[in-house]
Amino acid sequence: MELVSIQTNMVSTALLKDILSSWPKASTLLGNIYFSVILATILLFLIIGISLIVKHTPNILNDLKGLIGADIPEIAIKLWLAFILLIPIFFDAGPLWFVLWWFIVLWGYVTKPEKRIAFVFISLIFMSGWIVHIGGSFLTMAQTHVNREIFMMENHMGSVKDVVAVASWIQKHHEDADPVNTQALIEKRKGNYINAVQLLRHALDLEPNNPRFYNHLGIALSGKGRHQDAIDAFKAAIAINPDNVIYHYNISRVYQGLYALYEAEKEIKLASNIDPSRLKEFLDEEGKDINHKFIEEHIPITKLLHRQLNPSKDLKVAASALWDTWFGIIDSTKAIYLGIICSIILIFLRYIPKEKFTKRCSRCGNFYYVGSPSTGNHPICLQCYWLDIKSKKRTASVMQDKIEEIKKYKGYYSSYTATFEMILPGMGSIIANSTLKGVARLCIISIGIILIITGGQFVFSFVPTDIDMGSVIRVIGVIMIGTAYWRAYKSPPIRLGM
Fold first, then answer.
1. Domain with CATH 1.25.40.10 in the chain
2. Is residue 366 left, alpha or beta, with left meaning phi > 0 and alpha meaning psi from -120 to 50?
3. Which sign, positive or negative, has the C-alpha torsion 196, 202, 205, 208?
4. How far apart are CA 47 and CA 427, in angstroms?
5. Strand partners, 113
6. In sequence order, which residues have a C-beta less than 8 Å from that of residue 194 and are 6 or more positions away?
7. Which of 14-18, 32-36, 62-66 has the lowest mean pLDDT?
8. Which of the residue ranges 97-111, 245-259, 359-373, 472-486 would you say has the lowest mean pLDDT?
9. Most Cβ neighbours (<10 Å): which of 298, 319, 345, 471?
10. H-only helix segments in 191-259
11. In the CATH hierarchy, which fold is given to the domain comprising 158-298?
12. What pLDDT is attached to residue 398?
């Protein structure tokens, strides 16, 4: 099965009221939001990984030079580092493997906020099996558990193939009540009320507290002329769900047919107290069409979505394809083991002494091994730390050269980070240790890029709609990226003179 097998030339959105009342449109809306968020998250972590490489590459190079020796040309050391960072490419790995590998390689160099990002990423790996399962359900919404056929038949849009598909499903899945209900509605519309009643009683044996089935049973019994039994069925539905206007309206129609006008009026008043506007719609429809008598009830959207999420062969194939696209190498069922192994690796890496890794002072730019974090949790060398805790008078007389070094580096560092911030808003902030600001801006950039590329359209409804929001969504993406660049220009990572 191809992932695009359910896509058609139909657009993927409609008015919000229509979307919320239709399972294909609701599922399409949720699916497109879901994939937009997931792809934006993947892109976000990929950009964060690249930003951390840019930030910490000088530190790694300094360590490699000390480890390998001065006799090796610097270009050779850089090529060796590039080889280390790109090792996943030799295993046909997905983009998230690179991010995972980079976190492991850079673990001794990253700051505490950056380590928190790594743990968030590991937690996503733990949940990735569930994440791709959800994604697979949206991709296969038209194939799983005859959901499409149920919807089409209930909304009078089905074909002979849909009727055959529902009947075939019932034969193979005897415990599935919803297709049985759909089959009963098909029989009722054909005038086969006896078959409809039998099917609905079977559905109620499977789900005895389903008021929808009692409602349809009442309609079928009324068609057979068994009015008192129909009233009892409607009353059973009301007993389970007394706030449903449909049940009160339908039982009032039975009373009206029996000329029990007092009872009919009583039920109409109860329905009016619950939802007068909806009751008015039913009465207006009855006035337009004399054959319009009873109201059938559609399967709830939540139940269709629940059926959509149930495992199936098509869903498993789609979920595996999504996993292979993002990760690859291993099967999606082993995602939790991958997360556990990565967590263990990171825990062991914490026991490697910090003094073994080069750090760069955020004040003066010098490389150091032993230092202390600043009050803002930024790495600083011991000299800058000493400068912080000494009095201004002592500082002026002893550390004037160091102060000049800090001023000079701050000017360079401000320009350096501002350049990266304008290349990609958020990257410069991460380099400047403003991790929260950097992640926020990269998040906006990632969402904007995904919206522009895709238009927010990954899956399409199999029911035609009237409004194509793709262009509007792309414009929103452009606005988000424009806003991020404007903020990067107005608020650079480091301000001189502050």
1. 158-298
2. beta
3. negative
4. 8
5. none
6. 224
7. 14-18
8. 359-373
9. 319
10. 193-206, 211-223, 227-240, 245-257
11. 1.25.40
12. 53
